[in-house]
Model the fold of this input.
Amino acid sequence: MATRPPVPPFVRATAIQKVRLAEDAWNSRDPEKVSLAYTLDSRWRNRSEFTNGRAEIVAFLTRKWSKELDYRLIKELWALTKTALPCVLHTSGMMTQGIGIARTETRIGVR
Done:
């Protein structure tokens, strides 16, 4: 699996860059592009829905964005460790609005 810079260990500047790249990918609303930022065995939870792996991520995001036509994500770095980037997420759309917390752990070389 190819790694995409910036990669751990993170310093504040590279962590912010990684968060902004993720935010830009999400706001592209391209499920395939977003899924590539996650490992093949990624596990997500969204309310009561559990998603496992990239194929399910693509299906989930396709369903989500077919309903949320004006979806927008703002992602802010909340804390910093060498491999984890806890973030505060602000989402908005015509029908939804929310705030959440996500913890993304970067695992180099994991497929």
About this structure: The two ends are 6 Å apart (CA to CA). The CA atoms of residues 40 and 54 lie 5 Å apart.
